[in-house]
User: What shape does this take?
Amino acid sequence: MSDAELQGLQDTIESRLRDAQPDVELLALERPATERLRLFIDRPGGVDLALCEQVTNELRDLLGDYSIEVSSPGPERPLSKPEHFQRFLGRRARVRTREQIAGHKSFTGELTAADEASVSIDAGDGEVTIPLEAVHRSNLVADETEVTA
Assistant: This one.
């Protein structure tokens, strides 16, 4: 499945969830194996097992082609849309790129800026601005205080 086909499937799932569960947001769709889809969802108030089951039931017709895993984002929440980066400005994140930017393909640091086209991250040795189209994967990084709490 190409990136464009996966994006098309994500758009379809987002549209269906918006109709069936308007408060549920699809944060990321991954395809870890040929016949498996992994969905990371969130909603105000959090995600529980019952919601994961409801989302799976909404997508039951896809079960003929894929096994579906529905999961909460956890402390290392995926960041896949401009509004995700904007919501978590000031937090630590890891951004991995498809191609090298400033000599690197992975950046971990504080999110310092974000708009519809790019995200900026300061890994401690200066701020780097990354075009969103270059981002392969990104997620929040749990702070030590979150891990020990």
Q: What stands out?
A: The domain at 82-148 is CATH 2.30.30.100 (SH3 type barrels.). The chain has two domains: 3-71, 82-148. Residues 117 and 132 are 6 Å apart (CA to CA). The first strand starts at residue 25 and ends at 33.
